Amino acid sequence: MSGLKSWVSSANGDTDFPIQNLPCGVFDDGNGARVGVAIGDMILDVAAVDHGQDAGLFSEPAWNAVMAAGRDIWAALRARLTVLLSDEAQRKAVEPHLVPQASAQLLMPFRVTEYTDFYAGRNHALNVGTMFRGAENALPANWLSIPIGYNGRASSVVVSGTPVIRPWGQVKSADEALPRFAPSARFDLELELGAVVGQSSEGMVSVQQADDMIFGYVLLNDWSARDIQAWEYQPLGPFQSKATATTISPWIVTRAALEAFRVDTPERERELLPYLREPGPMLYDIALEVGLAPEGKRETVIARTNYREMYYSAPQQLAHHTSSGCAMRVGDLLGSGTISGPVRESRGSLLELSWGGSEPLRLDTGEERCFLENGDTLTIRGAALGDGYRIGFGACSGKVMPSIELPDWAKS
Q1: In this predicted model, what pLDDT tens digit does every residue of 113-128 receive, in sequence order?
Q2: Quick one: CA torsion of 147, 156, 154, 44, rounded to 10 degrees?
Q3: Rounded-to-integer distance, Cα 226 and Cα 343, Å
Q4: Which is it for strands 164-165 and 187-188: parallel, antiparallel or unpaired?
Q5: Which domains does the chain have, with CATH numbers?
Q6: Which residues form the Fumarylacetoacetase N-terminal domain (predicted)?
Q7: Which pTM was predicted?
Q8: SS (H, E, C) 342-359
Q9: Which entry of 51, 124, 320, 321 is annotated as an active-site residue?
Q10: Residue 298: how many other CB atoms lie within 10 Å
Q11: 124 belongs to the catalytic site
Q12: What are the binding residues for substrate?
């Protein structure tokens, strides 16, 4: 399929969305929200063409119904859309149902049922652990045996382009006797990939079964208030520090589109328990980057890394999630955890890039950052690079806005 071309000319050049991709999203061009797939710089209105499936699957502006229909439907729909967009004989019937991306608003691509975020990147865990516990105790005792995670708020998940308001919260410095209520001064990003669960489960599933349950992947920014987190996280972990927003890209890149880019997880110094062992490659070779643009100024790429750096894959995370008998649902979202590489310029958070604020990061504009300032726009991009094409995710962006004015009853 690597040499296949589309009759949509913009899909055959420098694009995230060639015929080999066909990511799933929801758009509104002024005629109502509906499901579509990206092809070049256009969006195909899926419900309006001869898609070969039950029309009810596309009756709402979300991909949940299609996901629930199962893997055979996913494959059949992808095959049919590929024909419609590559066969010149289909052009006359299909072309009227293409909408320019530039004239459409991109919306949440699916209804998020529940959201779980993991801490599964070894480089990130080593960096953060070294900062706070020293190199000898950087990794918790359980880290090499178990994918560590916490249950976040599905209501916090927003689509790219949604402004992110700096949160208020309890903070306490080392020299303060008691906490105070203040806007976060150490607001941060976390570069992640999100796995979208497309099939439900009851009881425990294997890593292979978990892989089969995943519909696709999105870029994800797990915005984090580090000063709020430092005060609240013991003993039960993150809570309000992670509840401000979780931004995802508007396109779900399907697992099928990523098949050619599978890679193994890294070598392990400790053997995993049998239920977590992978039957084959479960990560993907996806190049990632983070850009930071101060208000009204040009962007600086502050980090470049790759999803293959993860220690635990999404199928392992999902399998572990079910190990207690926890039921998974269509539309569940799993955050990978921060994706950091082994060198400074590949670190996926400002906490790491500025080493806790002690080594400010210098931008191309001449400004410095330890943590995010109001007006900063963060953009995550990612793509798997194929033979003459790339499977891209589009952009995952959010602009940091000032904290809200406190109501009188919350003031001292």
Answers
A1: 999 999 999 999 999 9
A2: -100
A3: 22
A4: unpaired
A5: 9-107 (2.30.30.230), 115-406 (3.90.850.10)
A6: 20-109
A7: 0.97
A8: CCHHHCCCHHHHCCCCCC
A9: 124
A10: 10
A11: yes
A12: 119, 133, 229, 233, 338
